[in-house]
Structure formats: structure tokens, C-alpha cells
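User: My instructor asked us to take a sequence, write out its structure as C-alpha cells, and then describe one feature of it. I'm not sure where to start. Here is the sequence I was given:
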Amino acid sequence: MPNETLAVHRFWERLALPGLIDVHTHFMPERVLRKVWAYFDAAGPLVGSAWPIAYRQEESRRLEVLRGFGVRSFTAMVYPHKPGMAAWLNDWAAGFAAGTPDCLHTATFFPEEGVHGYVREAVERGARVFKAHLQVGAYDPGDRLLDPVWGLLAEAGIPVVTHCGSGPVPGAHTGPGPVGRVLARHPRLRLVVAHMGMPEYTGFLDLAERYEGVHLDTTMAFTDFSERIAPFPAAEKPRLAALGDRILLGSDFPNIPYPYAHQLHALEALGLGDDWLRAVCHGNADRVFGGA
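Assistant: Let's start with the prediction itself. The C-alpha cells for your sequence are:
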């Protein structure tokens, strides 16, 4: 067993877990993923710095690596950057999930005419999680076209992993304010704040305390890479501990600039205890997704 895989196994085996559940991994059509990688390679405006891709491999190999780590369930986070993409991405993601039983069927949306129809169709086809990316999509989550979508997803109880924080580069509609206004209208929404909401950690912890459906995923948070850019405030660690039932493991695999095990070790280094780690790395997602 390669050293990295062994390190990941030792982590979850020490916690007596059956493996890991990672709610923030990216699988997408190959030509789309190649464009994403090219954007990272060029350190595009939304990236802000050099960002080497640690797992630049063919899809079958990426699946093999993730499963080899002991990740029992994962997602296929897809997201559009313009109108006319989302329905096509949803078709691809539905097919991917059908052929990949350990992938939670993922879907997405964009504020455009017809959005409610194709989101409803994705729900009827069995989508278990949605992805919204306010930074890349550059849209207001309060757009009138999305109001019935948020209502539908709140009613269905389907989590929406949402990049709504302003890291690594702020967007026109990022930060806790815009999505907070959506939650005020749809307080039952199961919103999963990607990247712990970095760098506005405090504002998103406020939302999690205010709305019981708000969760936060750990994607890239607490790692050496992110601590250099947007350090998590030490004063907020007690709130992080208190919200331990609302934190979900996310990694951003394969688009991370460090080994997968580093995210796990960064969580362990917080010193919040084994029960907290068990909940974050498996138990919480297992509950949210009804036996992931």
C-alpha cells in the first residue's frame, strides 16, 4: 500500500470508522475538467495564486485513488459558469452516478429561464445533492428565477453545497449577506457552505447557529495552503467544536495542491477530539444523506 494511502487508512482506522464520506469532490465531463485544470494552471483571476493539481489523472485512475483511500461515498461537483450549461451537466452527472454507485447523484443549476423545470427533473431522477458556485457563476443567489428552486430544494430536504464565501477571490455576490437573505426566505434549506465559508468564517458560523439546516464543509480549510491565505480565527474554535454535528468532510479532490491526507491531518491538528473527527469525517454526512 503506497505511503499516502496508508496514511489515510491509518487516520480512519484509528477512529474505528468504516471509511470516509467526502461531500466535496469533482468529477465532470472530461473536456470541462481539462478547461478547469487549464484555468488553475494559468492562475486565473478567480484563483489568485499558483495552484498545482495534485491528482491530474484519468477518471478511472482518480476513482481508483479515491476508493483506495477508503472514501466510501463522494460527490461529482459540477457547476455552470454561463446559461445553457446546467441541464447538460445534470444529464452527464446522472449518467455518471448510474455507473458509479458510490457517487452521490449530484446536480446543479443557474439563474436562467427553465431552471425550475430542470431542477425538478433532476430531483425526480434521484439527485441527492446539488452544487451552486456563486463565485464562478457570478450570480445573485436571490435572483427571482432561483427563488422557486431554493423552495423546491428546501421542501425536498436535498443539500446544496454552495461556494458562497469570498475565497480565494471575492465575487459580486459572495459573503454571508446574499445567501443569508436566501435563508431568511427559505429557513429550512439544507445549505452546505463550501470551504467553511473562507475567509468569512465568523459570518457563516453565525448562519449555522441561526439556521439548523446550515452545514459547513471542511474543503481546504485549516490546511497549510489555506492558512497562509485565510487563517481560521483561533477565537472561533469553541464554536467549531459546538457545531460539530454540522461540519462535513470535503476535500476538493482532485483539484488540490497537496496530498489528500493533509486535509485529514489538518482537521486532527485542531485538537477537537476523536468524537468530533468521527462525526465530521463520516457520521454527519451519513445522517444528512440518509446512509451514504
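For the description part of your assignment, you could build on this observation: The CA atoms of residues 27 and 76 lie 4 Å apart. Try explaining in your own words what that tells you about the chain.
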